[in-house]
Amino acid sequence: MILKADGVTKRFDDRPVLSRASLTLEPGQVVHLAGPNGSGKTTLARILGTLLPPDEGEILVDDVPLSERRSQTRRMIGFASHAPLLYLSLTPVENLEFFATLAGARDGRRRALALLERFGLEQAAHRPLAHFSRGMLQRVVLCRALLLDPELLILDEPYAGLDDAGILVVNQVLTEIRKQGRTALLIAHDKERGGGVITHTVRLRNGRVEDA
Amino acid sequence: MTFLLVMKKDLRLFVRDVRFLATLGLFSASLVLILSVAFGPIFTEPPRLAAATVWAALFFAGVLGLTRSLELEGESGAGDALRLSGADAFSLYLGKTLANFALLAAVFILLLPLTAIFFDVGTLKALPGVLGVAALALIGYSAWGTLFAALARGLQARELLLSVLLFPSLVPLWIGAVKLTHAYWGGVPLVEVKDWIKVMAVMDVLGLALAAWLYEAVQEAGE
Question: ipTM score of the complex?
Answer without folding.
Answer: 0.89
